[in-house]
Amino acid sequence: MSFRKKVGQYTIEKVLGVGGYGQVYLTTHRKKQEKIAIKVSRDRETLMREYSFLKQLSKLDGFMKIYEYRQLEDDDYFAAELLGKNLSYNYNDRILSLECVCAIGIELIDRIEKMHENNIIHRDMKPSQFVLSADQKSIVLIDFGMACFYRVNGQHKEFKTRRKCRGTVSYASINNHLGFRQSRRDDLESLCYSLIYLVRGGLPWKLETYVEGFKKWKVVLNQKINITDKELFGDLPIEFSAMLKYTRKLCYDQTPNYSYMKSLMEKFLNSDKIWHYFDWLESPDKPRQRRCSQIVDGATTITKLKREKKVYERRPKKVKFSVKDMHHNKEMNNPDFNNIISEKFKSISKTTIQKHRHKHNLSMIDERDRKTSIDSHSDSKNSHLHMPNYANNEMEGFKIKKYKSKKSMRLYKVLSALDIDKIEKPNELKKMGSCSNSIGQTSGLLQEGSDECSTPKLELPEFKNRDLIIKARAIFADNSALENHRCLVF
Ligand SMILES: Nc1ncnc2c1ncn2[C@@H]1O[C@H](COP(=O)(O)OP(=O)(O)OP(=O)(O)O)[C@@H](O)[C@H]1O
């Protein structure tokens, strides 16, 4: 297999990153001998859109400088300023200090504010999109492949439901999970999860590796709703939870108070020179650096990454053989052939097999899986029977806490995660009646799925909190009815 050596007039030196839809290379311009980053993709439409957003922002401080866009025979590329490392693995595989993360937070809130002023929302904020500038003294926000305009001709786009869940599940906002069209608030909520990741070395959501596609979104939503402050924030100062709660409270089209958010982070810094606090820079008068308790047991944590790295390093090299070799061996009646094959299949883990089944929609053959699927199926048929009858409640100023049943407690948890303790129009709850009659109708929120969703027909009933989401969705469904409400949702 031959690797690509050049793109247009640039010679490729190494791969900087391979993402969802493109590859980023470190290259040298053959004539000017300049080091340049090149993003290459076959997805012309997305690459062009990203380029146009970057072009618009590139004149501002804190955004990547962007050069040319070229169309090639098989793919397209654009050239950009060469930046440093991204923050996804954290500096030196260690958790960052509290002060450093606050400094990063201030930088990023500033970038987000500028981006929002330009009518753009990012929709995929996460640590791998936070890249150090070449001098390592500032943070640059990259990857606008999923960005879009939230305001067109001065008008905010209207609120919509049943949208695809977009972005990266661990950092997605609750409203994104619920299928609501994203707006400025969602970038900020994702930023909060990213900062927690950086300062605690991970996020507490737990995911089995074989959970894929849209099911992953359901599992993580459940955890985001049910998690306690202690689990999520550990010994972090109260300002972090205040910031997350603030972003969750924002209305759909509300302009966030960026200064307030910055002020929460500034409490931990005494100097104006933000880069002073970056852990990766040495300075003689470096201020005190505090480390917070680390999350070690989550879907992605530094500890886990280190562990995996060690296992990977220790693993003996696999003997590779091609299909051609296999046929050859078979034809030659090689006595070792069967051993080789059985060894190879032994090394395929259960997870991989489950993944494969999942991908190809194969029936689950083990008894436990079969049982779950039967249970969930029967659940689906009778789902409307489980719906508590809220429809008769005509009381003004409906208090969520009033309902003590298990299901309403779950509803209460979603609403309190969104910081809503009162629904002003109890009549809205009537909609649940009609929603609950048809799984197809209600599952719009759930089935449209993520962009990662390769199996859009994932069974809705598998989601334990199905009722809860249906309810939340029903309550939020009517944008206009809730516009003037204290619950600040849309
Ligand atoms: N200008 C640059 N200079 C240095 N490194 C870069 C630059 N642009 C991107 N990278 C690196 O390449 C990685 C992938 O880039 P980018 O996020 O733009 O690609 P993507 O295909 O959209 O990825 P994903 O799907 O993971 O978001 C980044 O995390 C970053 O480490």
From TrEMBL:
Protein kinase domain boundaries: 10-269
Gene3D superfamilies, alphabetized: Transferase(Phosphotransferase) domain 1 (1.10.510.10)
Chain positions recorded as ATP binding sites: K39
Keyword entries, A-Z: ATP-binding, Nucleotide-binding
ATP-binding is among the record's keywords: yes
Composition skew (Basic and acidic residues), residue ranges: 369-382
Short name of any one Pfam family annotated for the protein: Pkinase
Single Gene Ontology MF annotation: protein kinase activity
PANTHER family: CASEIN KINASE-RELATED (PTHR11909)
Protein's UniProt name: Casein kinase I
Phylogenetic classification of the source organism: Eukaryota, Sar, Alveolata, Ciliophora, Postciliodesmatophora
